[in-house]
C-alpha cells in the first residue's frame, strides 16, 4: 500500500495526514504523539477514528500540523485521519460519520469590526 494523504482543518489549524501500513506509530511534525500532545485528552482526540475502527496498530501516521492552538490542531488531525481511513476503505464512512469525525467544524473566530474594540464589544456610549 502506498501512502494515502488527506487534509483536516479546524479553526486556524491545518493538518496534512499521510497514512501507510505499519505498527501504529503516530508522528506529528517529526515528534512522537506523546511529546507533541502531552495531554492524554488531546492524544485520545487524535486516536478516536483509529479506535472506533479498531485499526490503531495497523497503520503508521505522519502528520504535518500548522497554525491554531493545541485543541484546534488535535481536532484537525482527527478529521484528517478519518478522511484518510475513508480513502483506504470507503465502507468505514458510515461508522465514522455517525461519530461526527467526517464533519468539518465550520466555527471560526469572528472578525474585528472597524470602530470597535473587538468583534461584538462596543466603546462606551456617551450621550453628551
Percentage of residues in helical conformation: 25-40%
Instruction: Briefly note the structural class of the backbone.
Output: alpha+beta
Strand content: 15-25%
Please, what is the average pLDDT?
94
Rounded Rg: 18 Å
Number of extended strands: 5
User: What is the CA-CA span between the terminal residues?
Assistant: 73 Å
Q: How many strands, which pairing sense, and closed or not: the largest β-sheet?
A: 5 strands, mixed
Spell the H/E element sequence.
Answer: EEEEHHEHH
- Major beta sheet, strand line-up: 1-2-5-3-4
Question: How many DSSP H or I helices?
Answer: 4
**Shape label:** elongated
- Residue runs with pLDDT of under 50 for 5 or more positions: none
Description:
This protein is 34% helix and 23% strand. It has 128 residues and is α+β, with helices and mostly antiparallel strands. It has a five-stranded mixed beta sheet with strand order 1-2-5-3-4. A hairpin with a 2-residue loop joins strand 1 (4-10) and strand 2 (13-21). The termini are far apart. 27% of the residues are buried.
Amino acid at each position: 500500500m502506498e501512502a494515502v494523504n488527506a487534509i483536516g482543518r479546524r479553526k486556524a489549524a491545518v493538518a496534512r495526514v499521510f497514512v501507510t501500513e505499519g505498527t501504529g506509530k503516530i508522528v506529528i511534525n517529526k515528534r512522537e504523539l506523546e511529546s507533541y500532545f502531552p495531554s492524554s485528552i488531546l492524544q485520545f482526540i487524535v486516536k478516536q477514528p483509529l479506535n472506533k475502527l479498531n485499526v490503531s496498530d495497523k497503520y503508521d501516521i505522519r502528520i504535518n500540523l500548522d497554525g491554531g492552538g493545541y485543541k484546534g490542531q488535535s481536532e484537525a488531525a482527527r478529521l484528517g485521519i478519518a478522511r484518510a481511513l475513508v480513502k483506504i476503505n470507503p465502507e468505514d464512512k458510515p461508522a465514522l460519520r455517525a461519530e461526527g469525525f467526517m464533519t468539518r467544524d465550520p466555527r471560526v473566530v469572528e472578525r474585528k469590526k472597524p470602530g470597535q474594540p473587538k468583534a461584538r464589544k462596543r466603546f462606551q456610549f456617551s450621550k453628551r
